[in-house]
Design a protein that fits this description.
Elements lengths: L5 H21 L8 E2 L1 H8 L3 H13 L3 E3 L5 E3 L4 H27 L5 H15 L7 H18 L3 H7 L3 H11 L3 H19 L3 H29 L1
Antiparallel strand pairs: 1-3, 2-3
Helix pairs in contact: 1-3, 2-3, 4-6, 4-9, 4-10, 5-6, 5-9, 8-10, 9-10
Length: 230
Amino acid sequence: MIAADPAASTPILVDVVYRRLMAAIIDCSLLPGQRIRQAEIAQTLGVSRAPVSHALQLLKYQGLLQDSGRRGLEVAPVDPDRVRDLYQVRAALDAVAARLTAARCAEGRLSAADIALIDKAFESGMKLSAETPMSVRVQADIDFHHAIYLVSGNRSIAETLQPLWPHLQRAMVLVLQAHETRELAWREHRQIMACILAGDPEGSAHAAYRHAANAGTQTEERLRRAADGA
């Protein structure tokens, strides 16, 4: 039997704490502006302060936490300008991914497994309802787009967007609260998928860009209205 090495387990604990805190920030269990109490988190998760401290620094580096004077750290606000910028980047890359995937389909290079991956992600999302937990709905939306990234043939698309998704997810929680917005999103997903499977690169790119750009505009507007009403 190999004895446990406390030092070796530290990176694992840091990752566990990091993921738990990120999930809480994304689903607004930890609200923007909320103070982060290191000792309280350590007690709640049943870990020492060391992995909590490391996890908090990672989240600060990602921009999900920010300094709060002598109070330590707090959850960063969801900034409308930042959201606009992120959606502009996402719209451009979503269009590239859709165009590449449709071109591969037109050339006969999209395998049955590739098509099944997109179709499965779409069907899974369509089965969800307003009663489905918000975190599940947001993840289903991401999974659909990620499926397209994966089969586009360009790994850099997913790699580039990976660090942006936590910020986008926070914004998506706000947008997907509305039933009509959720329904529209999946209608647009259907159109993107149809264009891809029809082997229409430009139609796919246009549909994907418009979908992300519209989502960005809606989210930015909601955030600004909320700020004005605060």
